Amino acid sequence: MPALNFVLPHWMYWAGLLLFPLAAMFLVRQQRRRGPPAEPTLFTAYLFWLTAGFAGLHRLYLKSWWGLAFLPLLIGILYCNDTLRDVREDVSRTFAALEQAQTQVKLAQPESEAQATAEQRSALAAAQDALRGRTADYDAAKAVQDHWINVTRVFAGSLAVLLLIDAALIPGVVRRRRGPAPAPEATHLPEIHEAGTGEDPTLGVHTRVTDAIEAVNVRVGEFVAYWAVISVFVYYYEVMARFLFNSPTNWVHESMFLMFGMQYMLSGAYAYREDQHVRVDVLYSRFSPRGKAIADIVTSVFFFIFTLTMLYTGGRFALDAINNAETSFTEWGIQYWPVKLTIPIGAALIVLQGISKLIRDVLFVTRKGA
After folding, report:
1. Among 177, 200, 229, where does a domain finish?
2. C-alpha angle 26/28/31, rounded to 5°?
């Protein structure tokens, strides 16, 4: 298989984090308006073809046993790549020995052929014999490597031909396999919260101010939630590049842990709004609804001390990164200031959500709880 030398450009990384969630949110809303799709769908079939067609999963999704025809070719590629890793070590070892022999020949070369002594000529002849032996070893190892590369190309070419054929056949297979669209179900399942969540008694309290704040946090939380889908495709690329193309990346891990760090900061307010944050509820769960609201009002002092401190220090932290145009110390060299900027942004969203929560608690205590 040919090597993959792709390195994700910085602009593509930031554009993907911005545009992918927007496209996903648009497609999801369009699908919700149309209702449940009839399975199988053409989009899903081509998505399987693009991302896992080498394993025949698109055919298995379409309930076609022809997907098993791809497996021998895939196994052949994996076997060849595993063999090539061992062969490359022999090529590297023999090449290093060849370079050393070439250096020895240069060192043994007398300054003048006419004035060379018998000892110098003997040393030169020995160095040249060693060079011929090292050259033969390298040529043999290189021939083995070229053989396995050619075998891999045969498997890969055959796999590519099958995928191109299926690219034209998929629409017809989807039409034959597709059934009627399922009728929407009218039943509504009760919402069941995990232990320690859903304890907030003010979830049903609404005002214009709190609804405006929470609408922002809900949209930000929904936006960054789609980043998790990006990680599936990116890590998929890393696995394929590493094991099918012998081309491990130097940017996948860094790009994803930075993305998840930003997601963590920006989704905190949404988790707080949905009452999905971690709470020590040994006593809290035993309070009455009014008691819970009063406890939240009292402990909000500590909440605002922490979040306002994070907002202030995070703002200074981000400002320093912006002023210094800070980048990572890795080969990828991604910009750090957008990552650090999410700290004060996330803190600001959490502060706003805390204000919304405080308003709801006060209203609950003074009105509903009175």
Report:
1. 177
2. 110
